[in-house]
Amino acid sequence: MSEIQPSLGELEDAQNTAYENFFTARDAVTAAGERVAAADEAVCLAEKKYMNSEISV
Asked: Which residue, 6, 26, 40, 56, has fewest beta-carbon neighbours within 10 Å?
């Protein structure tokens, strides 16, 4: 029974794919975090506007 060993080129391709997947995932997480921060800011602003309108009534 012989073992199948990947060539150096195949290992490099696999490593490059892993790097690309990592950076794609990292960028997605960063973008999601930015959207969460923007949504949180919008909620805070809406709450302030609501509270100001309640106080002025």
From this structure: 56
Retrieve residue 6's tokens.
Answer: 């990947």
**Angle at the Cα of 16 from the Cα atoms of 15 and 19, rounded to 5 degrees:** 90
Q: What sign does the CA torsion over 37, 40, 42, 45 have? A: negative
Query: What are the φ and ψ backbone dihedral angles of 9, each rounded to 5 degrees?
Result: -60, -40
**Cβ contact 37:29 at 8 Å:** no
Task: Give how far the C-alpha of residue 46 lies from the chain's centroid of Cα atoms, to the nearest Å.
Answer: 25
- Note the pTM of the prediction, 2 decimals: 0.66
